[in-house]
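Example record used in the benchmark description.
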Amino acid sequence: MKDLLRTTDLSRADVELLLDTASDFAAKPFSANTALANRTVAIYMTKPSTRTRLASETAVAHLGGTPIFLRADELQIGRGETIADTARVISGFASALLVRTFAQSDVDELGKHSTIPVINGLTDEDHPTQVLADWATIREVFGKDIAGRKFTYLGDGNNMAHAWLTMGAIMGAHIVVATPGGAYAPSADAVAKAEKIAKSSGAKIEILTDPEVAAKGASVLYTDVWMSMGDPESERANKRKALSAFAVTPYLMELAASDGIFMHCLPAHREEEVSTDVIDGSRSHIWRQAYHRRTTIQAALYHLVRGDLGGN
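Model output (structure tokens):
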């Protein structure tokens, strides 16, 4: 496995290895501080970023490498150079490339034409580095035995909903995605792929439209912003109206399991998709979740550069 372009690229063994290594890097961040010694990693972003940029640059530094941050307006790609040509040039200078952009097809093309590992740091369709951080957090809280546990995502059926379904299916979990349905449902393709994985992993996939049913007994209530980057402002009022019942409130947290936790990929809009009392409350694990963006990107870089991942 050369690249991590989609969550579906990962096998269960790959995820287990990455989570074990991330746990090691959480305890000892500099334990592999020569893995990228005298090497560079390119970090190309066309979307604003707080956690992905901080996590990726720190991860490279902790592995002994030098991060090079790139924006489209700083490259010739902004003046018409092809993605394929850009990939070939970056491959001549860097040992890996992390990309955060809009179109999944752009990431796929970078992977196709690069001779170095390419990591998807977010696209409109998927967010594999985020769900790795999510599951690193879940494992810290609940351990490896997740039998009888239910993991629920509430809100817009966006890229995070897709990644949540896929990773849960890979891990053999009981995964729920609850949305208003219709235009806000997760894509049929993402659901079908998760269900296909679930057939072999033993996962249970549920797509619901009732937030209370989804929240009841859940070990995790997870949400994301309702307005994703690139969504037209004209949709805001309709989204808020359609999604209001899916906001994570103290009431929904009370319906969750007694040891249930709240998670959010951030940034958050308090009093929109989540109540301030919830996100700042004792059951919220958002800061540890954000911390694991670094540990899991560090693990992905470490193992991809070494060629350790087998792929799906």
